Amino acid sequence: MIVAFSVTPLGVGEDVGEYVADAVRVVRESGLPHRTDAMFTSLEGEWEECMDVVRRAVAAVEARAPRVSLVLKADIRPGVVDGLTSKVATVDRYLGED
User: Fold this and answer.
1) What pTM value is reported for the model?
2) 78, 28 in Cβ contact below 8 A?
């Protein structure tokens, strides 16, 4: 499965990068395949693994912020491995055929 999620601290002012870094640190230390961009972090693994990482990432932000917003989207597709790379490669292949 692939999980794309965003953890946003609320009530801490406009500059939230330091708080978001706490969540991303949890993801990076998880050992699961992941990518972070300006809006979301995508994570790939089994259901329990992914949900545990999301829970811990939220907890890391929650430890320092009075309120936390979580946006989560999941692609639950048993048997797919390396979806983070293969899905993008498929789109790139089609773009190369223009």
Assistant:
1) 0.89
2) no
